[in-house]
UniProtKB/TrEMBL annotation:
Domain GH18: from-to ranges: 54-393
Any GO BP annotation: carbohydrate metabolic process
Gene3D superfamilies in the record: 3.10.50.10, Glycosidases (3.20.20.80)
Record-given protein name: Acidic mammalian chitinase-like protein
PANTHER family: CHITINASE, CHITINASE 12-RELATED
InterPro entries tied to this protein: Chitinase_II/V-like_cat, Chitinase_insertion_sf, GH, Glyco_hydro18_cat, Glyco_hydro_18_chit_AS, Glycosyl_Hydrlase_18
Domain of life: Eukaryota
Signal peptide (UniProt feature, chain positions): 1-21
PROSITE patterns named among the record's database cross-references: GH18_1, GH18_2
GO cellular component, one term: extracellular region
Record has Ribonucleoprotein as a keyword: no
Similarity comment text for this entry: Belongs to the glycosyl hydrolase 18 family. Chitinase class V subfamily.
Amino acid sequence: MANQTIIILLLLITIFYKATGHAKSPSPAPSLPFPCLPTPLSPSYPPSPAASTRRLLACIHVVDLPHDVHRHHLLHPCLYGFVLPDPTTYRININQQDDELLANFTTTLQGKVPPAKALLSIGGGGNNPAIFAQMASSAKNRAAFIDSTIAAARKYGLDGLDLDWEFPQSQEEMDNLGDLFEEWSAALAKEAAATSSWRLLLTAAVYFAAEFILADNRSYPSTSIRKNVDWVNAMCFDYHGTWNTSVTGAHAALYDPKSNVSTSFGLRSWVSAGVPAGKVVMGLPLYGRTWQLRDPAEHGVGAPAVGVGPGGGLMQFKDLMDYNVENNATEVYDGITVSTYSYSGTAWIGYDGAMSVKEKIYYAQGLHLGGYFFWALGYDKDWMISQRGMTTEGNHFLNFMIDVFYGHVGETTLDTEISAHQI
Ligand SMILES: *[C@@H]1O[C@H](CO)[C@@H](O)[C@H](O)[C@H]1NC(C)=O
Ligand SMILES: *[C@@H]1O[C@H](CO)[C@@H](O)[C@H](O)[C@H]1NC(C)=O
Ligand SMILES: *[C@@H]1O[C@H](CO)[C@@H](O)[C@H](O)[C@H]1NC(C)=O
Ligand SMILES: *[C@@H]1O[C@H](CO)[C@@H](O)[C@H](O)[C@H]1NC(C)=O
Ligand SMILES: *[C@@H]1O[C@H](CO)[C@@H](O)[C@H](O)[C@H]1NC(C)=O
């Protein structure tokens, strides 16, 4: 996300990350956030109010797509976030609280049967992307960063590392990101060989598409990603929001007949860019975005609006479900965008309901993606949506996550946010 984004992020962050830098846009820059923005706002690894410090981002890889035969590859990673690189040394900074929590984090996850993978997430929305840009700009800085991440991973017994740089702002920064992944992966392999250990996993949170189609034409270093990264979590949401209140929008539309700002376009762009589908994980939002309709009688996707709706423009799934009941709202599944919305008077909420989630999971299966994740499980209403598409085995992992979420992992001290993956 870009600077404008920041605003948004604060709202969202609940979920996870945040926003950041400026996107330079060559053209008349659409004025608002999204368009100029590099990012969807990422709830996905959202920014939180204050965001970004310490939270458990539990990702369940919920197992199999029904026809998936690679069960032995199933993972159910949980991410701890966020930590940041020091602005001068570029080594990741792990403070005393992180130190205590991380020790518990890995112990708890690895004590599960089967053990879950514990990853450390670096970055997060709302943090200054310039520090990442500086870190990635020279071999010396990258080496300092990489070395510190491996040292931390081994110190705390982690299984992997996750980068959430939101976002590289130019093609040069994207190219540097490619170098970073290349050198990071090589360092992980070298360290694993030298210590006869399991190679640490390397993952990243990325924009919904492989190119920043709304800002300029900078693209992710897909060749390096394909070669060096275990999987990317594509943040497929925040296509529409508070930055444009003139019309309602499906903020995580699978399809958009009028533009390329859609999940189907984004996911396909990753595959077209050369990243194997099995390394692409689809993000699903467990939150809605709201508008105030101009006319209660005109309430479709794209209907005229005059402002933000309930919740200041953003509502967690569980809250919007309660809102729908309390306000006798009418819920509609929109097959064109593959999204769900509800309206009550002039209040309009766009989100993913059970039906759109199911359709999107079928879509992901059709593309043979690696999995999907929810941002964030903690926003679900009684696990209603996060159980979609799960098999018995999937439910086993859901139970596992419920245990983690409500159980041990520093529940009182951590901001727990969970997202699920299917791999
Ligand atoms: C796209 O980016 C390349 C550099 O990666 C640049 O040479 C080219 O001019 C850009 N094209 C447009 C239309 O911005
Ligand atoms: C808001 O979105 C609508 C529909 O996509 C678009 O026509 C309009 O130009 C946008 N307004 C702004 C200010 O970006
Ligand atoms: C969508 O992307 C395709 C392929 O990149 C391009 O040809 C097309 O013009 C784009 N459509 C819009 C509406 O931008
Ligand atoms: C709720 O809305 C439905 C139509 O959507 C209407 O038939 C019903 O009377 C409403 N109930 C209340 C209590 O307002
Ligand atoms: C670590 O776990 C132990 C045992 O579950 C608990 O008593 C302790 O408070 C935890 N420490 C932190 C910092 O959460």
